Amino acid sequence: MVLPIAYFPPISWFKALLLEDSLIEQHENYMKQTLRNRCQIATANGVQRLSVPIIKAEKTTDVLIASHDNWQQKQWHAISTAYGESAFFDYYADDLKPFFLPSQKEATEVLASASENPHLFTHNLAIIRKLLELMDIDHELRFTETFVGETYTAFNAEFKRMQNAEPTVGGRRESQCRMQNDSPTNNNAQPNSAFCILHSALNKPYYQVFREKIGFISDLSILDLLFNLGPESACYLLK
Description:
Elements: E1 2-3, H1 11-17, E2 23-24, E3 38-43, E4 46-51, E5 54-55, E6 64-65, H2 71-83, H3 89-96, H4 104-111, H5 120-134, H6 153-164, H7 178-182, H8 194-200, H9 211-214, H10 222-229, H11 233-238
Parallel strand pairs: 1-2
Antiparallel strand pairs: 3-4, 5-6
């Protein structure tokens, strides 16, 4: 399966990544309003969507991260508020905080070159590698040599649905697996596609901080799994 680069990817993305033949697409044109610069977390009031401001370019690998609106501080505050009481937030916070609140040394290095902004692709890749390390998963990331694209259209379609409608609880969405057949570019869509199998595998609930209040919400950012299950996250992804 070929996957787009993603910002703190959803759980289904990581399950797909761990398939033997998975690749990350690095030759695509950038697609806005997708998981490339967005993720979703669970709060006391339901799902909160976090978005990275960008300086758009044609190619995803050329897209830069904008530095306005104090977005990093705002996102870390949102994550801390949502998961501060979770079982493993304190255990992983110091490893993840630098992606939002860089140290003074890192900030000085960035400011030393005022014309430079971090590349979104590189930033996301660093996050993914750190997450694999924290979950103690030994997995070699592999990348496309040419543009492939259409094999992961389902991820784009599903994520846009998530942006336009409130996710359902109980680990299921009405649109589950339907996105394969909805895709106009996927002529070989099948109900039992790898993506549907991955999605259905996520229906088994795990503990979430606000589950008793808002119900279980499936396929949030991998942060939700990590902060709630900790070292058991790898078992959830690999089983």
